[in-house]
Design goal:
Order of helices and strands: EEEHEEEEEEHEEEEEEHEEEEEEHEEE
Helix content: under 10%
Strand content: 25-35%
Radius of gyration: 26 Å
Largest sheet: 6 strands, mixed
């Protein structure tokens, strides 16, 4: 007999353990609202956001879906969830390339009427008999009105052989009449700056069939290749020795290509830059708000939310390209900032810099998070202040303080207020100490505490919380 306010079932009134007049035909169950929250979904490595390798977000990590039993019924649900129209095809055998990391789902079985893929029957999360050669893919009907386009066989994605996606296949463009006006439309569509040249005669190597377009006519003012005068698909008098190419201005800019990796969206994650055709990380020596602002501006991701401390989004691999980056914060491109020469550093990947921008899904989580726990409702307490995430000291930390954290996060009631870095040690700064809540506050920031950054603690005293919710 529960009142409904208890933090755990064991706090409710009941008969003694094992005392009952029941049989298993009377076993009780529960359905919680959190079960209706659909797992986030994306399509990767395709020509648009509506075609590609299927990836789902689980436990804050993206992973793939195995193609066992994968059919048009499952593809229909994927396209519906993404708002991408109807399903054109359900593809297997890593049609859009092999993913990496977790294979989250296997033997997915949808009726085709579900609103989200996570509503379909499947094996338990992470249980599978597959490898990434079996990653599932989907092509949906909506490609947002743009002709899917890419540049291949160059040192980066802003120069190379022009390829367009049609009828579920990539194909090349013939160089008959190909000029700088046509190249300008390609560069503009890809967000690669201005056209520097329009190489012909398979300058970036011959492609393979089909040859989709010939005699393209652009004025040079178009924002996409679709707006140009195009021939009928597949009509040409060319061979692959005439494949057209493009070199855009962003290909010449050392920092012209930048990405955030390992986060919940393209606007939050580990900072990586492309140099000499290879992606590498940035060391966090001297990394701060000015540098973060430039990254968010360059990516078109809004304003800076935080410069996350070391390895918040995991350690990168390979090259560490930049160290001691020093921006004023007003630059349009990270390559305009001062830094040590490319590849010169005294760092390890545990120091990889990260950034979170306002256009990421992080903003929905607010300025308080629980990290390093089994789910978003348990972990080390971290708060966002002055564009930096930091920890809370466990001096005076108790269940009353934990109750406010759980309430703020929509995670139910507190089961435990942990101390002594129970969920691992965080990174500087330690933002709050001597937190003293009454338990009625709406947010942790309404509680009494020492001034921001004032503490006599070390990270072995980082506070944590375990809440009753587990979404």
């Amino acid at each position: 007999n529960c009142m409904g306010t208890e933090v755990a079932l064991s706090y409710c009134r009941m008969k003694g353990w094992g005392k009952n007049n029941c049989h298993h035909g009377e076993d009780a169950g529960v359905v919680c609202s959190a079960t209706n929250t659909p797992a986030r979904l994306r399509l990767e490595n395709g020509p648009s956001r509506c075609a590609g390798r299927v990836e789902v977000l689980h436990h804050h990590q993206w992973g793939t879906v195995c193609d066992n039993g994968w059919s048009l019924a499952e593809a229909v649900v994927v396209c519906r969830q993404l708002g991408c129209g109807t399903a054109v095809s359900a593809l297997g055998l890593a049609h859009f390339g092999q993913g990496s990391g977790h294979i989250w789902l296997d033997n997915v079985n949808c009726t085709g009427t579900e609103a989200a893929l996570s509503e379909c029957q499947a094996r338990p999360w992470g249980s599978n008999s597959c490898d990434h050669r079996e990653d599932a893919g989907v092509v949906c009907s909506d490609t947002s009105g743009q002709l899917p386009l890419r540049l291949v066989n160059g040192s980066n994605s802003c120069l190379g052989r022009v390829e367009v996606f049609h009828d579920q296949k990539w194909g090349t463009v013939c160089d008959d009449t190909w000029d700088l006006h046509d190249a300008a439309a390609v560069c503009r569509q890809l967000g690669c700056g201005m056209a520097l040249s329009a190489p012909s005669s398979a300058h970036f190597g011959p492609g393979s069939d089909p040859i989709w377009l010939d005699s393209v006519h652009c004025t040079g003012t178009e924002s996409t290749l679709t707006e140009c005068e195009l021939s009928n698909w597949g009509e040409h008098n060319c061979g692959h020795s005439e494949d057209a190419g493009v070199v855009c201005s962003a290909a010449e800019s050392p920092g012209g290509l930048l990405r955030l990796v390992g986060g919940p969206s393209r606007c939050a994650g580990r900072v990586e830059v492309l140099h000499n055709g290879t992606w590498g990380t940035v060391c966090d020596d001297g990394w701060g708000s000015p540098e973060g602002r430039v990254v968010c501006r360059q990516l078109g991701c809004g304003t800076l939310l935080s410069v996350a401390p070391g390895t918040r989004y995991g350690e990168g691999t390979g090259q560490i390209w930049l160290d001691e980056v020093n921006c004023t914060g007003e630059e349009r491109d990270l390559s305009e900032c001062r830094a040590r020469p490319w590849g010169e550093h005294n760092c390890h990947h545990v120091e990889d810099a990260s950034v979170e921008c306002s256009d990421s899904s992080i903003t929905a989580l607010g300025t308080l998070q629980l990290l390093n726990g089994p789910n978003r409702c348990a972990g080390r307490v971290e708060v966002l202040h002055n564009h930096m995430w930091g920890t809370v000291c466990d001096d005076g930390w108790d269940l009353v303080d934990a109750a406010v954290v759980c309430r703020q996060l929509g995670c139910g009631t507190p089961l435990s207020a942990t101390s002594g870095a129970h969920f691992g040690r965080g990174h500087d700064p330690i933002w709050l100490d001597e937190v003293n809540c009454t338990g009625t506050e709406d947010t942790l920031f309404d509680c009494q505490a020492s001034a921001w950054g004032n503490n006599n603690c070390f990270h072995g005293e980082d506070a944590g919380v375990i809440c009753s919710g587990n979404s």
